[in-house]
Specification:
single chain, 174 residues, alpha+beta, six-stranded antiparallel sheet, 7 helices
């Protein structure tokens, strides 16, 4: 009986460790801020991405169709009050997990901060992209977390699109 209990405990511990390791950044961040009403998270699941592909007319824009097929999930976290603290909390969590996440780019322009982090699998392929944006003046923070089969070209394309000041400003003003 003791052997069975020990074996069961071992299996549950391994399962729990594996489940925690498999969480994306957004899950960890939401867990860190649990119960905080300032945070909103919207998730686009794989099924929703599939529906987008089925319903949209992407024949004219093959790059959008290709990008959508690579995504597993999209999570957008927004904070509309005291954003700088939440931005710093997110960066600290990413830096605390430096073995998992690597900072690719960081920008600071006046009242705005942006940072891009990636996580790669054991083969060195990117599987997660975390984009942080903070507008000190508006006190807003936006975190976009993409997971899936991402490649360097996809990440460069997304980063180039979102590193433009006006794109994030549009998002932060909503």
């Amino acid at each position: 009986m003791r052997r069975v209990l020990c074996l069961l405990t071992l299996v549950m511990t391994v399962t729990l460790v594996h489940a925690q390791r498999g969480q994306d950044f957004a899950s960890k961040y939401i867990g860190l801020c649990k119960g905080d009403s300032s945070i909103q998270c919207v998730t686009v699941s794989p099924k929703m991405v599939e529906q987008l592909l089925k319903s949209g007319d992407y024949d004219n824009n093959e790059s959008i169709k290709e990008a959508l097929t690579k995504l597993k999930s999209v999570r957008v976290i927004t904070v509309t009050d005291n954003g700088k603290d939440y931005y710093e909390r997110a960066e600290n969590l990413l830096k605390k997990n430096a073995r998992r996440f690597h900072q690719d780019k960081a920008y600071q322009t006046g009242q705005q901060q942006r940072a891009f982090y990636t996580r790669k699998d054991k083969k060195g392929n990117p599987v997660e992209l975390v984009m942080l944006y903070n507008n000190n003046e508006a006190e807003k923070t936006i975190i976009v977390n993409l997971t899936g089969t991402l490649d360097e070209g996809f990440i460069r394309s997304v980063a180039r699109h979102f590193e433009k000041k006006r794109e994030f400003s549009k998002l932060s003003n909503k």
